[in-house]
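User: I'm putting together a teaching handout on how multi-component assemblies are represented. Below are the sequence lines for each component of a complex, exactly as they appear in our records. Could you produce the 3D structure of the whole assembly as structure tokens, so the students can see both representations side by side? Please keep the chain order the same as the input.
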Amino acid sequence: MPDSLGTKPPPFVGQVSMKEVARLAGVSPMTVSRALSTPHLVKPETLEQVQSVIRAVGYVPNRVAGSLSSRRTSLVGLIVPSLRNALYAETIQGISDVLQRHGLHLMISDSGYCLEREEALISAYLAQRPCGLILHNTVHTEAARQMLQGAGVPCVETGNLAPHPVDMTVSYSNRAAGRAMAEHLVSRGYQRFGFASLRIGDNERLRERRDGFFEGLRAAGIAIDPAMVLEVGEGLESGSQAFAELIGRDASVQALFLAGDVLAAGAIFECARRGLRVPQDIAIAGSDDNDLMQQMIPPITTVRFPRYRIGVRSAELIVGRLGDETLQPASEDLGFEVVPRGST
Amino acid sequence: MPDSLGTKPPPFVGQVSMKEVARLAGVSPMTVSRALSTPHLVKPETLEQVQSVIRAVGYVPNRVAGSLSSRRTSLVGLIVPSLRNALYAETIQGISDVLQRHGLHLMISDSGYCLEREEALISAYLAQRPCGLILHNTVHTEAARQMLQGAGVPCVETGNLAPHPVDMTVSYSNRAAGRAMAEHLVSRGYQRFGFASLRIGDNERLRERRDGFFEGLRAAGIAIDPAMVLEVGEGLESGSQAFAELIGRDASVQALFLAGDVLAAGAIFECARRGLRVPQDIAIAGSDDNDLMQQMIPPITTVRFPRYRIGVRSAELIVGRLGDETLQPASEDLGFEVVPRGST
DNA sequence: TTGTAAGCGTTATCAG
DNA sequence: CTGATAACGCTTACAA
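Assistant: Of course. Below is the structure of the complete assembly, with chains in the same order as your input.
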């Protein structure tokens, strides 16, 4: 996969090695190593001496060598479906905040919602011997599962409650969220529903959310017309289109659940353009709360997921495992919240 | 900085080493190495033999060892001011897309808009011996500059046209963008202006955009009242507040340039709530185009920056340098575009 | 508190 | 086309 990037004498930072620092400081390399990793075990004067040489020559330790020797890197790998999506940004920030506090570094890639690409990435990441792996996905290829299981690297799956986690999970239940939204809408008295989401494909999270929604409706004795179920692309524009399509198919529809991305906001914009009143003429609910949902006119009823917290807990589980390898596989359900607003 | 994460016998993926694979395949480790990196240099039958052992035992090469030996990693470091911000997401995606194509991996952190934290991150990243570094920032501490210069690692600065790049730059001119927006608004006939941005602090990009705006107004013989210049927090809500504050200070203001984040959209929402007509009662312009700006009612005039392209070109410059170390420092201006819409 | 010795698992190099 | 050998720059383990 990696194409060759030239084979000339490669660039390298280390003009100065630990050995050289040691020589200049008149100590052994081991003492320099200690001065860096366990300064309290070095005599103050020696420490001072070493540190001054380090500063003088601008020595930057080589973690590649260090990692090989100690058999431990400071890299945590993260694979998300998409980097563009603001959705994942919150989680990434949570992960990053925790890792940074612990001197760990985040390696990140996107699978483009493709399981085969995820598999390739997992393999490439394992080659870097990361000290942890976080996957925003709970469905993997068989090969990927095997690699993960065999690797013995702490691994957190997130984005959905995984029934059979490879190792650890931190998430919320998309199915329950969908159900809860159905219950909310039913409780408001709506009877005729429409549903749109991003393309589901391999996306277990969306599938669950949708199925949960249908389940909730069924529980209330309501069936949704298959013609009123849509998959569309990303972006506000798609939300507008989804709205147009659904209302075109059944003008008497009373409530739409537009699950994912900012589809619901796009629908509200479309309503405004058409002069439709929300929720009097039609109710609209979304998922993934953010300040746009809150600021829209009317503000949009959504399901809120604790995305930042999920990032934080995912990273914390990795860090915890590093500190204590006997920690058992954990599965955390961080829940969700239906936020009722003016749009329903 | 890294706090100790336990010192027990560390976890490791490599149940199987190259040596072991070699033994099982009845060849030397070097042949296994070649089978992996330069398969065309290995006799087909030997290759087949080695590959089948690799599959059988699930061997995952250890890139840490490989990197140490070859003195070359496949890691590119990226430091952005914030991971949350959708702004950077586009650029990150561009970088990631290119790196992935070349078998490189992205290490990412956020500096939280803090130069000292950026410095610490640069140092930590250099310790990983990355094959490239991308900084979404052009102003650094003196120590950071020195490290970067001494490191000899390909480095791209972005986010603003750097007058004195450490190595390479890929960007657009925030100053020119500010000026262009001033010219646009002046050309529409507005005379009394207000300006709000996120907190500027060490953020050279925002400072330049603001100064460019003032410069453009001055060039048209227009002065902006210092009381009509504001700094606010992030988010739509802040945009609403900025609007409220500015209009409160001078009800006769005709046009607002809300530079940064989604401030302009927040202002438009506030107008809607107050029943003000845009642009008849007041014109509003923003920066950083995205589909929200486009979908708002009215759609918002903005400056559009080629954020995805910037990511792509940044990564390409790194990759290019890896392939040919004699490539000279490049500085690319990818420009920007004022997108006139209904809000002005 | 410091030092010595022995790797860590690859790849560069050169010989065959 | 294949192999032997010597690094790569650090840390672990043990000794002094």
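A couple of points students might notice: Residues 27-31, 34, 41-43, 46, 65, 67-71 of chain B lie near DNA strand D (CB under 10 Å from a C1'). Chain B touches chain A through 83 residues (CB under 8 Å).
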